[in-house]
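User: My instructor asked us to take a sequence, write out its structure as C-alpha cells, and then describe one feature of it. I'm not sure where to start. Here is the sequence I was given:
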Amino acid sequence: MYYVMSPSSTPNASPVHHYQIHHSRESTTGRFSGSLKNGGGGLPWQKLPHGGAEPSCGDLEEEEEEEEKDGGSPVRCYACVLVSFVLVFMLFSLILWGASKSYKPIIHIKSMVFESYNIQAGMDYTGVPTKMMTLNSTVRIVFYNPATFFGIHVSSSPLSLFFYDLPVASGHMGEFYQRRKSGRILNIAVSGNQIPLYGGGSTLMSRSSGPSSAVVPLNLTFVMRARAHVLGYLVKSKFYRRVKCSLYLRERRLGKPIRNIAVACEYHEGRK
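Assistant: Let's start with the prediction itself. The C-alpha cells for your sequence are:
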C-alpha cells in the first residue's frame, strides 16, 4: 500500500488521498525475471561462491594466481626437461673427456741412422767465410693409439737437430689419422745442406777435411701432437708429447743405427 501526498500552493492543502495499489506475485516475478533477461539494467553479474556470499578481493586474486599457475606449468615443465637434458649431456661429455685422457698415444724413437756427414770450408749468404756442415739422417718413430673408442689426428713440429744451440738439420712429418687400437712406424728424413757453423764449429772436421773420423754431439727435439674427436666436434681431447734425444754422430758408424737410442731419448707431456 502506498500513500501519495499531492502538493498544494495554499496553506490549506487538500486532504491526503489514499491510493491502495495491489501487486500480484505473478507480476512482481515477471518483472524480476525480465530484468535478468535484459542484463539487470547494465550491471555486471558475477558468479557467487557457495553459500551465496559475494567474493572478496582476496578470493579473486587467489583465483587469478591459480589460473596463471595452471597456464605456466607446461612452460616450466619444458624448461626443467631442457635444463635436465643439458646437465645430463654435460655430465656425459665430461665423463667421456675424462676417460679419453687415460688413452695417451704411445710414442718412442725406434732408431736413427746417419747416412752422410761432411765438413768443408765455405761462405754464408752474406759472404762471410766459415765452415759448412752437410748431413743426412733418418729417424724411425713408433706411434700407437691405445684408445678403444676413438681415432686421433696426428701431427708434429719439425724434427730439429742442434749442434749445441745451432740448428744444423730438420725434417717434417706429414699429418695422418690413426684408428683406434692401431699403430704404425714413421720414417722421417732429417737433413741439412751447407749449414754455416761460424765460430761454434771451428773444431769440427770430417774425413774429407781431417785425418780422423769425427764425433759430433747433437740434440734431436720435436713435439708430437694428437687430437681426438671423442664426440664429434663437441668433445675433443688433445695430447702433446715432447721428445728430446741427446746423441752422438760418429763418422765411422755412418749407415748404422745409433746404439742405445732408447736410453738417449726423454719423453715429456705438454707443449714445452
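For the description part of your assignment, you could build on this observation: Confidence is low (pLDDT under 50) at residues 8-13, 21-30, 39-47. Try explaining in your own words what that tells you about the chain.
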